[in-house]
């Protein structure tokens, strides 16, 4: 099993001083190279869930084991290292660095992990159809093209797990379908598992394995919990 | 992509603020070096210039005024000595050589100094004697002048040109003498105050039309080289026990006293220069710190890609150091511009020549200090970057 989660809990303080659980996942797992979509409405704690898996957030309780490493028990530096080597992250807002060209953005995705490999960066950008746009800055690309750079960057460090948070949320339907297909294919080609969260039925319809976040996350079942972090 | 490349990208991305901040560092570094070099070289030159003489005899009065007047050709003469007094000085067995000078006239601000030709036999620096570059030495019996190189250049004079001097040490166009002098020679540059002087025969200056006939044989000062170590004894004899003349000796010590008197001013100047350096370092801090708000997302992205907090901290400190390094390098250009202007001005006013290209310790420690200050200034925004919350700044949480 690539990813196993047990009794994961994450809470935030609210303005009135109380503590609100956002993530409460008793058990969750994902197999190597498996592709799964999580259906979650806005405020269901899906970004927090992905951030916990990525080691960006530290859980209050529970255990996350990724590729044999207990990311939940690791120090912050250890989580950073694991993220850099094992995880690729695709964001809804792409999160490309505007001062970097396409190829530099992809190279940056490798810099904190195995090290920059210009040939691979070029190959990935060619794979996503941007072979002619290597030295373009994000502002010189369409949103669909920017998303493709984000996909290439997420795969740059040969991750074992790609996390995608509403990756098509900012795209028109045609670009979204194209982009999603690309994410599917490239993850398969690179042997990476894919965990995607979305509330878009069109997107979810393209996955064989779709699970409702509300079933996994007990905190999402309580409406007030989700609203607290929306 | 290495840390250095990330830093360079960041500097490129914030090119305008990088340029402006680096420029302020350059100004500070250049100013710091200039203040130190001008001060050190001015002291070294003023205390090192003795024009080849050990001491100066003059009328009873200030030793400093006497030295400034007769060696640096700056001040007014404190008074005159008679020709007889000059002869007694010259005849003293403790005196190796004596050169009388007379002052009191100028041409467009450049001082005329009446002198005997034995000035040109004196070594003003080891192995160096005043020499005529073009033309020939003046004939003591004629109205001829040998012009210092700087004065000749500024007045655009060449051998054969004629001029009529003006009375007094300060140029007043209504006080022109009728006497006409011919430029017989232009001197080799000596990089001493002599370069600013128009040298004429001492009898010419003494007997210039309009001068007081009763003082026609007086001299303004007598420059002397001593035999052996008789300076102390003469100082005792002339200054402490006598009341007729002043013996300014040793020249370097007298000039050193001048610099000691203005030491507080130098300290203030240095303090101001250091303050400017601190302000410039503050500009790095302000520039990067202010950009931190707009860069929180960028930092969060880098963290999400696996960059550690310490990496982000290092990037910001290196960025601040990079700006300081750019400024420190450009500071040499600023230094050269400031020093060129300062050296030109000081040479014009005093004849003292400063050398901007002469290596000084400040040229090493000032840029290094700016680099250190820049790195220190980077610590504050780096701490802010270090604390950036990734999840909060990455994307809207759902």
Task: Describe what is shown at a glance.
Chain A is an alpha/beta fold. Chain A has helices spanning 46-54, 76-86, 102-111, 118-127, 143-155, 173-190, 201-204, 213-216, 218-221, 223-228; strands at 3-13, 19-30, 35-39, 61-66, 69-70, 87-90, 161-165, 193-198, 210-212. Chain B is built from 12 helices and 13 strands.
Quick tags:
heterodimer, A: 230 residues, alpha/beta, Rossmann fold, 5-stranded parallel beta sheet, 4-stranded antiparallel beta sheet, 10 helices, 9 strands, globular, B: 398 residues, alpha+beta, 11-stranded mixed beta sheet, two-stranded antiparallel sheet, 12 helices, 16% strand, elongated
Question: What is the topological layout?
Answer:
The complex is a heterodimer of chains A (230) and B (398).
Chain A: E1 3-13, E2 19-30, E3 35-39, H1 46-54, E4 61-66, E5 69-70, H2 76-86, E6 87-90, H3 102-111, H4 118-127, H5 143-155, E7 161-165, H6 173-190, E8 193-198, H7 201-204, E9 210-212, H8 213-216, H9 218-221, H10 223-228
Parallel strand pairs in A: 3-8, 3-9, 6-7, 7-8
Antiparallel strand pairs in A: 1-2, 1-4, 4-5
Helix pairs in contact in A: 3-4, 3-5, 4-5, 5-6
Chain B: H1 3-13, H2 15-48, E1 55-59, H3 63-70, H4 83-91, E2 95-107, E3 110-115, E4 123-125, E5 128-129, E6 132-135, E7 144-147, H5 149-155, E8 162-163, E9 166-167, E10 181-187, E11 198-201, H6 202-206, E12 221-226, H7 231-241, E13 245-248, H8 251-261, H9 263-304, H10 309-350, H11 362-386, H12 390-394
Parallel strand pairs in B: 3-11, 7-10
Antiparallel strand pairs in B: 1-12, 1-13, 2-3, 2-9, 2-12, 4-5, 6-10, 7-11, 8-10
């Amino acid at each position: 099993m690539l990813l196993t989660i047990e009794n994961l809990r994450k809470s935030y303080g609210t303005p009135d001083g109380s503590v609100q659980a956002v993530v409460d996942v008793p058990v969750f797992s994902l197999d190597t190279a498996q592709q799964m979509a999580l259906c979650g409405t806005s405020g269901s704690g899906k970004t927090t869930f992905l951030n916990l898996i990525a080691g960006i957030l530290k859980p209050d309780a529970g255990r996350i084991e990724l590729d044999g490493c207990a990311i939940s028990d690791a120090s912050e530096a250890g989580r950073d290292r694991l993220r850099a080597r094992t995880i690729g992250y695709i964001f809804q807002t792409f999160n490309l660095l505007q001062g970097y060209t396409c190829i530099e953005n992809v190279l940056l995705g490798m810099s904190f992990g195995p090290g920059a490999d210009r040939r691979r960066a070029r190959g990935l950008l060619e794979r996503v159809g941007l072979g002619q746009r290597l030295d373009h800055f994000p502002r010189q690309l369409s949103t669909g093209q920017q998303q493709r750079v984000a996909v290439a960057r997420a795969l740059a460090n040969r991750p074992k797990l790609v996390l995608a948070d509403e990756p098509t949320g900012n795209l028109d339907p045609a670009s979204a379908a194209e982009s999603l297909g690309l994410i599917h294919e490239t993850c398969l080609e690179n042997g990476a598992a894919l965990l995607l969260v979305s509330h878009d039925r069109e997107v979810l319809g393209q996955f064989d394995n779709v699970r409702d976040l509300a079933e996994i996350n007990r905190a999402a079942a309580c409406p007030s919990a989700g609203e607290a972090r929306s | 992509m290495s840390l250095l490349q990330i830093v360079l990208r960041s500097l490129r991305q914030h090119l305008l603020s990088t340029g402006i901040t680096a420029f302020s560092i350059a100004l500070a570094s250049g100013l710091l070096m200039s203040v130190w070099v001008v001060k050190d070289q001015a002291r070294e030159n003023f205390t090192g210039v003795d024009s080849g003489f050990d001491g100066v005899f003059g009328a009873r009065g200030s030793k400093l005024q006497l030295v400034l007047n007769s060696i640096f050709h700056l001040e007014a003469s404190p008074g005159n000595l008679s020709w007889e007094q000059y002869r007694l000085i010259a005849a003293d067995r403790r005196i190796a050589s004596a050169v009388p000078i007379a002052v009191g006239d100028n041409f467009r601000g450049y001082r005329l100094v009446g002198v005997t030709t034995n000035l040109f036999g004196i070594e003003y620096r080891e192995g160096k004697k005043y020499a005529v570059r073009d033309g020939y030495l003046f004939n003591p019996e004629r109205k001829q002048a040998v012009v210092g190189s700087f004065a000749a250049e500024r007045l655009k004079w060449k051998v054969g040109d004629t001029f009529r001097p003006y009375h007094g040490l300060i140029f007043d166009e209504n006080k022109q003498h009728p006497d006409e002098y011919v430029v017989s020679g232009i001197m080799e540059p000596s990089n001493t105050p002599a370069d600013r002087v128009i040298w004429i025969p001492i009898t010419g200056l003494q007997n210039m039309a309009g001068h007081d006939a009763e003082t026609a044989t007086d001299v303004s000062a007598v420059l002397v080289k001593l035999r052996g170590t008789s300076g102390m004894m003469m100082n005792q004899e002339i200054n402490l026990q006598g009341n007729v003349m002043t013996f300014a000796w040793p020249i370097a010590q007298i000039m050193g006293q001048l610099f000691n008197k203005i030491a507080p001013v130098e300290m203030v100047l240095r303090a101001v220069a250091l303050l400017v350096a601190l302000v410039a370092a503050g500009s790095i801090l302000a520039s990067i710190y202010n950009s931190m708000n707009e860069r929180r997302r960028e930092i969060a992205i880098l963290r999400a890609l696996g960059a550690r907090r310490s990496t982000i901290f290092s990037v910001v400190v290196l960025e601040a150091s990079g700006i300081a390094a750019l400024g420190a390098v450009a500071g040499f250009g600023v230094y050269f511009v400031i020093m060129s202007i300062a050296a030109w001005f000081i040479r014009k006013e005093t004849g003292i020549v400063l050398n901007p290209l002469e290596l000084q310790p400040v040229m090493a420690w000032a840029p290094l200090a700016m680099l250190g200050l820049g790195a220190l200034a980077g610590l504050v925004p780096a701490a802010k970057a270090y604390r950036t919350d990734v999840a909060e700044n990455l994307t809207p949480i759902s």
